[in-house]
Amino acid sequence: MALTVNRRQLTGGLLGLIAISAAGVGCVMSYEIADYIWQALFRMLGDFDMAEADMAAFSDDFTRPIDLEGWTGWMLRAGGLSHMDGYLTATGPPGVHERFEGFDRSLLGAFILSTNFLDVYEQGRGTVVYYGPNVPCSNPFSKFDPVS
Amino acid sequence: MWSGDLALVNSIDAEAINGEHFDIVIIGSGFGSSFFLFQALQKSGLRILVIERGRHNSWEWQVEHQDNSNIDHNTTFSGSSDKPWNFTIGLGGGTNCWFGQANRLHPTDFRLKTLYGVGQDWPIDYDEMEPWYAQAETIMSISGDPELSAIFPRSIPYPQPPHRMSAADRVMKQAQPDMHFVMPTARARVATETRPACCCSMRCNLCPSNAKFTVNNSMLPTYQHPNVSVCLESTALRFNGGGNSIQSLVFENRGKEHEVKADLFVLGANSIHSPAILMQSDMGGGLTGRGLHEGYGIGVEAYVDGLDNFDGSTITTGVNYSQYDGPFRSESGSAMISFENRWPFGLRPEKGRWRQIVPLTIVIEELPDAESRVLPGKKSDIPEVIYNGPSDYALKGVERVMAALPQILSPLPVEEIFLRNRRRTESHHQGTLRMGRDAATSVVDEHQIHHRWRNLVAVGASVFPTCTSSGPSLTAAALSLRAADHIL
After folding, report:
1. Whole-angstrom Cα distance, residue B189 to residue B159?
2. What residue ranges do the domains of chain A occupy?
3. What is the pLDDT of residues B420-465, one digit of tens each?
4. Chains A–B, number of C-beta pairs less than 8 Å apart
5. Burial of B69 by CB count in 10 Å (0-12 exposed, 13-18 middle, 19+ buried)?
6. Using a CB-CB distance cutoff of 8 angstroms, which residues of chain A are in contact with residue B161?
7. In chain A, which residue's Cα lies nearest the Cα of B351?
8. CA within 13 Å, CB half, B13
């Protein structure tokens, strides 16, 4: 059966496609990187309690030196919005997987360095507190045997 | 206007010394200059002037501003390559920003040409350097592994005990006791009179607890000595010479030129600016400025199964010498493998396996290339840097060490090894005033005295005739102690 499409229908269809794409892009760009950060941290660490002000301060400090206006930022937003981020971090296609994995690993490293998360995790209770970006003695895994 | 902590050193106004004569004028205040000054002060009565381009930025200032200097070093030279050349402008120079790794050079590093037919031999050997290494280690209170003496014979023990190894280091040490050691470091293992013990802050370029040796925390008395004057914010421009000696130095301070005279001049700016000052003085030529180089670094990670790492007591806990020396050096560079107690590429994302990683920083020996060089720039006192690397020798070293890593790391429960990056710089530029016995193949002699200008001594890593894969700081310090002791 032949499908007949007239000019008006074709134009309408194209305009509709553009509108849907624009809405999709707008939707992705309205998704905050801070939302991605918490989604990723909860995925990697499990649930934890943290004050909103501390969460916001950590997000701001962590993202400040990173350029998230380009392709990486767009991919993180799209991945977070579609809840595909876990898959993309673990086994996504080349070129995508590395961006998600690299961002997530840096995020996790910075979070564990600059909060008391490990104490809360080991004790199984408590609220996670953000110490700030430049605290001394920040490696929480370090051990310092007495020197004889 | 804030101009640094003038009160903490014997700061002198440039106007007050214009036309003055000193016994010694020292240019720069990094490792090379500071250790020369330290040794010079063991001889009584010498009147010494230090010309420093930057301010004195105290540790407190650096922590507050999260920067080692108020001057962007990139504005002091030009170049078409995007390769970074890092240094700190300010009192103490590179002692402010270094990470504190304090390896001695390997005995074979001094005899590369004789042993492997490449590069150059140094005009001195390990045995001659040993007492000066020991003295520099004492001054910096280096923490080190006594077992390193199997490779690096020592006359006295390390001043401080070694740091605590990480879980990965302990496995490696057990399996390779002759090749794997605790990294020697100027990050204090135990507190000294002027520094707390390192508490693993993981930001060594500006230690927030001030545990790493710097001029600021351990050598300021040298710059407060009554015989020493420090002229800050002063840029050395050119020497005036005649016959075989230099008579005076012209420097700029606050837009005005001044001139000072001396019996001995010590050139310790850095590997870019030291040769540039000679060229600006029409004292270049030969190999002056040629052979600019540094080690070629890569970042590697091994994912390990079930081994929770990072429980060492400082940022870098292990050093592995299994790829450091061998006949391969006739074809490809030596490699020093540092075992990191930090996570430059982040933690693992799998829950509960966050620290089952062994990050490595591997530095490969380079061969100095005369085409990598410093030239007089189009603008006065802004030299141009040309970089012609990395060499095939270094790149072959990367291939060799990556091929060898599965075997080297076999004691660990390795899942996979990743070459994560090729590091853009090791921040260790060197080699532009190389030392040697022959004026045709070097710029300064075995005592670091210029072959032509006999009252000019070059200090710092600019005198290194070859690269090695070890960091240069301890060797630069030891060389200066030796040179000052011989000359004065």
Report:
1. 10
2. 32-128
3. 999 999 999 999 999 999 999 999 999 999 999 999 999 999 999 9
4. 82
5. buried
6. 147-148
7. A44
8. 2
Q: Which residue in A45, A137, A143 is closest to B351 by CB distance?
A: A45
Query: Do residues B174 and B216 make contact, with C-beta atoms less than 8 angstroms apart?
Result: no
Tell me if B164 sits within 8 A of A147, measured CB to CB.
no
Residue range B6-163+185-292+429-487, CATH number = 3.50.50.60
Q: What is the ipTM of this complex?
A: 0.90
Q: Enter the pTM of the model.
A: 0.93
Q: Is B450 helix (H, G, I), strand (E, B) or coil?
A: strand
Burial of B41 (0-12, 13-18, 19+ CB in 10 A): middle
Burial of B440 (0-12, 13-18, 19+ CB in 10 A): exposed
Instruction: Locate the domains of chain B by residue range.
Output: 6-163+185-292+429-487, 296-371+383-422
> String of b and e for B441-459 (b: at least 16 CB within 10 Å)?
ebbbbbbbbbbbbebbbbb
Q: Is B200 in the A-facing interface, judged by CB distances under 8 Å? A: yes
Copy the structure tokens of residue B415. 């899942």
Does the pLDDT value for residue B363 go beyond 70?
yes
Largest CA distance in chain A: 91
Question: What is the rounded distance in angstroms from the CA atom of residue B275 to the CA atom of residue B326?
Answer: 33
Q: Three-state secondary structure along B39-59?
A: HHCCCCCCCEEEECCCCCCCH
Closest CA to B212 of B245, B185, B177, B247: B185
Chain A (23-42) residues lying within 8 Å, Cβ to Cβ, of chain B: none
Comparing CB atoms, the residue among B190, B313, B351 nearest residue A142 is B313
pLDDT of residue A7: 72
